[in-house]
Amino acid sequence: MPQLAKRMGRAKPSAIMAVADKAKKLKSEGRDIVSFSIGVPNFLPGDHVYAAARDALAKDSGQYGSNRGSDALLDAFLQHIEALGLTGYTRMHCATGVGAKHILYNLAEALLDEGDTIAYATPYWTTYADIAEVLDARILELPCPASQDYKLSPAQLEVALATKPKVFLFNNPNNPTGMVYTREEIAALADVLVKYPDTWIITDDIYNMMVFDGLGYHNFVQARPELRDRLVFVDSLSKTYGMPGWRVGFMAGPEVVAKAITVLNSTHITNLPEVVTAAAVAALTGPQDVPVAKCAEFQAKRDLVVATMNAIPGVICPKPQGAFYVFPDISCAFGKSHNGVAIRNDVDFCSVLLEAKGVACVPGSAFGAPNALRISYTCPTAQLPVGLKRIEEFFAELA
């Protein structure tokens, strides 16, 4: 029979979904499972979002929409980023997509030729590597271990940019670590970026409204406005508004890049659905009480998870200040066993933990950091202490 394209040999299924699927299977078999695996916010948007969707259904035109995104949606997005301090953008600087993942894939197609290099810090969101490998781009990983709070230093960035990667991809707040860069840290990195004008910059900042401890969100263009002509900001409704299934992503950047994404949309998707667009506009422009309340709730959950993990002997758990993840270094467990089952690495750890205690976490190797695991603490509030107690028990039982 005919063969698949060679690129499919480089395509990989989501490691995160593999853990989530196994947890669902065990739960369907009657096991009591607490899932800290998949990164979904586990709340729903406000009623005004559903009201807008129902109204759009009642008035559905049945027509094609804009490849770039409707004017109403683009204006709502511009209003949102202006509140973040990203000013001076117009509709022509923006484009929409079927979630941030779609935007990132389109950006990779638009900016990277085969063999070009994309650089990003490790730990990284799994999709970065997946997209780069499908497109046959070279990957330059910049290791940022727990000992440096999972954050990229200006010196590391300087060394990386000196090799002239085509794209530097930056994630803040970070998935999987939850770490957030301060204004001063962003400024220091921006000072390095201005020295290397041949590198595109993508800031994947979809958790920009989930920042704790009054730290605030900051972007390179605020520190060094001259970066604007080669920096692309990526955002999404999924996490902030409890709308991952609605699939709405955005970008703001140079007009030439926004036009490229619009052209790719004309080939890939044509447009976002009218109902989805209406819901997205309502989310961005309507009451913000749900995301504000959830941000406060997640901060409290963060405190509980970090305190629990740091109380376990040998575990190293930097304190994240955003998103809804904690990323403890659990390498102290390697070389030990649980009820006779050996734990050689992070994959073994998560597998044995799930089987023995019914707690699902994603191994750090999925994010390029095999000494750790990711805890997504968006589960129902009552389940959180239950799952954490089981993790404590698991460590205590290691021999």
Describe this structure in words.
- The chain is an alpha/beta fold and 399 residues long.
- The chain has two domains: 6-44 and 290-396, Alpha-Beta Complex (Aspartate Aminotransferase, domain 1), CATH 3.90.1150; 48-285, Type I PLP-dependent aspartate aminotransferase-like (Major domain) (Aspartate Aminotransferase, domain 2, 3-Layer(aba) Sandwich).
- Helix content is 40%, strand content 14%.
- The protein contains 13 helices and 14 strands.
- It has helices at 15-28, 47-58, 71-83, 99-111, 126-134, 154-161, 183-193, 220-223, 255-268, 274-285, 289-310, 346-357, 383-396, and strands at 34-35, 94-97, 117-122, 138-143, 167-171, 200-204, 231-236, 249-252, 325-326, 336-338, 341-343, 359-360, 362-363, 373-376.
- The strands form four sheets. Strands 2-8-7-6-5-3-4 form a seven-stranded mixed beta sheet, with helices on both faces. Strands 9-14-13 form a three-stranded antiparallel beta sheet. Strands 1-12 form a two-stranded parallel sheet.
- Helix 4 crosses helix 9 (255-268).
- It is globular.
- The mean pLDDT is 95.
